[in-house]
Write a structure and sequence with these properties.
Elements lengths: L1 H5 L4 H7 L8 E3 L9 E6 L6 E10 L9 E6 L2 E7 L8 E7 L7 E8 L7 H8 L8 E12 L5 H6 L16 H15 L7 H16 L4 H4 L1 H9 L1 H4 L16 H12 L6 H9 L5 H12 L5 H11 L3 H5 L12 H21 L11 E4 L1 H7 L10 E4 L13 H6 L8 H11 L25 H8 L3 H14 L14 E4 L2 E4 L4 E2 L5 E2 L2 H10 L1 H17 L8 H13 L4 H10 L7
Antiparallel strand pairs: 1-8, 2-7, 3-6, 3-8, 4-5, 4-7, 9-10, 11-12, 13-14
């Protein structure tokens, strides 16, 4: 209706109506003044369930590979991008699992042709595909099925032991005794199965009775006591009581179960972990190892991979940097999504396969999805989502150092910064964090008004007395990463003013060992893998204990580092050794 209404007054709708397959589906467009997207809006969805979304689509004509991807979002939340493989006449079905965000009465799953949102649609197509069609993706059908449910939660089991109410849109009928039993069970589980204080229990029951006395039905009268439980410190905080006059005491079996569960799952223990604690076997080294291995196979471990790696690697730096779209057209929100996932998926793979943590410095493989592989110029990756990709010997990828995330963290969004990159390498890989810069340090660009290579500008900058001492150590490290541009793409030359200049490689690491190129740079870092081991040990100890490590932890951290080194720096050893240590098992 819209297209026909505007066809006589606008060339865009008129051209769209002449497309061959408009009666069968939708061409996703990215023209100035508007765009066509395919989406499903579902009102009244169940936030407890997951859904399956299926997209039947194909590529229109023969666009460059960069235009064969669709961006996916849920009311503005960026989701994993998808690559389209079929053709407009022979569509291919893509299915993905989807869990909507909580907090509103509907979800909106939407796909559109991928492009940089900061660039006008018509201008973008002219730059990446000047002779191509304005639409590169044809969508035949988009459908959603669900909700699908996993195992019943604890609350569902105790609140609805006989299933939902047989009467549609009516609460489950329950007696006051059953309601109070639900309050007791709910509070005990919320407090991670600690016994309730009798006074607190009585007050919860009194609150329920007050509601009933005011005329509320049992279901309504339950709301306030359950809300009080969820607002109480016993639920909001992990309780590990301190003993007066005791600096450090062993955790109880129950406290160890809770600490372990929040370490690996960011969630309360399950029945198996509680049972081991109740039996008194959880502190047995063999049983504790078995429990950790079991927990690492559970999907809830996704919280550990995301949270630990984001904390240790400081991915918030990546989130905070806005990339200049005029300089880096192909870096968009979809590449940003995939680039942020890459370090996390790499660490996850090392843990699952129990590989050496030196792979964080350099590896002969990378964890990529099709969009990131295309961004890096790696051919032949099919399918959807992340998977292990073997790299040729000459590839600069592999490890965290070869990721777009790391290189953007070490940039300003407009240009590279050997200073920031050198600082990050010192901190994360050489365990030698730099001090904060002194006040009133001049900007790098203040060193000269002439267009100079970054390396020359830094050399002028560090000639100033207040800058020289720190830069003498930082800058020679950062020079080793200058062959990556601000968004992590490999380069041999850089633009300086109006000319192109070859990048000068080489530098020295602390201790005086020199390198000539990026490959030698990574080799020297691997020779210092004990520094990486210490950095990871401190990082995972801080994460697992829920606090910063202190001077008094030094002996424990030294022992954990030595043990990790003797065991070949295996990723699971990093986890098992911490959990088995007195540092983790004491308060």
């Amino acid at each position: 209706f819209y297209l026909n209404f505007h066809a006589e007054r606008s060339a865009g709708p008129a051209a769209y109506l002449k497309k061959e397959l408009i009666e069968k589906g939708l061409y996703l467009t990215r023209r100035s003044g508007g765009r066509w997207t395919a989406g499903i809006v579902k009102h009244g969805y169940d936030p407890r369930g997951s859904y399956k979304v299926r997209l039947l689509a194909g590529i229109n004509q023969e666009p460059p590979e960069s235009r064969t991807f669709v961006s996916v979002n849920d009311k503005g939340r960026v989701l994993a991008p998808l690559k389209i493989y079929g053709t407009a006449h022979q569509n291919q079905m893509i299915e993905r699992d989807y869990r909507p965000l909580h907090g509103s009465g509907h979800f909106g799953f939407q796909v559109e042709e991928r492009r940089n949102e900061m660039i006008d649609g018509k201008s973008y197509v002219r730059k990446v595909d000047p002779y191509g069609d304005w639409s590169s993706i044809f969508v035949n059908r988009l459908e959603v099925e669900g909700p699908f449910y996993g195992e019943l939660t604890f609350f569902e089991k105790v609140a609805f032991p006989n299933g939902p109410s047989p009467k549609r849109n009516r609460p489950v009928e329950r007696t006051d005794e059953e309601a109070k039993a639900l309050i007791d069970s709910f509070a005990r589980e919320a407090f991670r199965r600690r016994e309730l204080d009798p006074v607190f229990r009585v007050r919860l029951h009194d609150l329920y009775d007050q509601g009933r006395g005011s005329g509320l039905e049992p279901e309504e009268a339950l709301i306030d006591p359950l809300a009080v439980v969820l607002a109480s410190p016993g639920f909001l905080y992990l309780s590990e009581a301190e003993e007066a006059g005791v600096k450090r005491r062993p955790l109880t079996q129950h406290e160890l179960a809770v600490r372990l569960s929040y370490f690996l799952w960011s969630a309360p223990p399950d029945d198996a972990l509680y049972q081991a604690a109740d039996k008194g076997t959880l502190k047995n080294p063999a049983e504790l190892t078995r429990q950790v291995d079991r927990m690492l196979t559970d999907p809830k471990t996704e919280a550990f991979y995301h949270s630990f790696l984001s904390q240790w690697f400081e991915l918030h730096r990546f989130d905070d940097i806005a990339v200049n779209p005029d300089e880096y057209l192909m870096f968009d929100e979809q590449v940003r999504y995939s680039a942020r996932e890459e370090p996390i998926r790499l660490f996850e793979h090392l843990v699952k396969e129990n590989l050496s943590l030196t792979n964080l410095i350099d590896s002969d493989f990378a964890m990529l999805d099709p969009l990131l592989a295309h961004f890096y110029g790696i051919k032949g990756l099919e399918g959807q989502g992340f998977r292990k990709v073997s790299l040729p010997p000459e590839s600069p990828r592999g490890g965290l150092l070869g990721t777009t995330a790391f290189m953007i963290m070490g940039s300003t969004g407009d240009r590279t910064s050997p200073i920031i990159r050198g600082t990050l390498v010192l901190d994360k890989f050489l365990h030698d964090p730099s001090a904060d810069p002194p006040p009133n340090v001049p900007e790098l660009t203040d060193a000269t008004k002439e267009p100079l290579p970054v390396r020359k500008m830094i050399e002028l900058h560090q000639s100033k007395a207040q800058c020289a001492s720190c830069h003498a150590k930082i800058d020679p490290i950062g020079y080793g990463l200058e062959t990556f541009d601000a968004v992590g793409l490999w380069r041999d030359t850089a633009t300086v003013g109006t000319r192109m200049e070859r990048i000068e490689q080489g530098g020295t690491l602390p201790g005086g060992k020199a390198y000539n190129d990026f490959g030698q740079f990574k080799s020297l870092l691997i020779q210092n893998r004990d520094k990486l081991a210490r950095s990871l040990v401190e990082g995972i100890a801080s994460y697992g204990l829920g606090r910063t490590v202190e001077f008094s932890d030094g002996d424990d951290l030294d022992a954990l580092t030595r043990k990790l080194m003797t065991e070949g720096m295996r990723a699971r050893s990093l986890i098992h050794n911490l959990v088995q240590s007195s540092l983790f098992q004491t308060k």
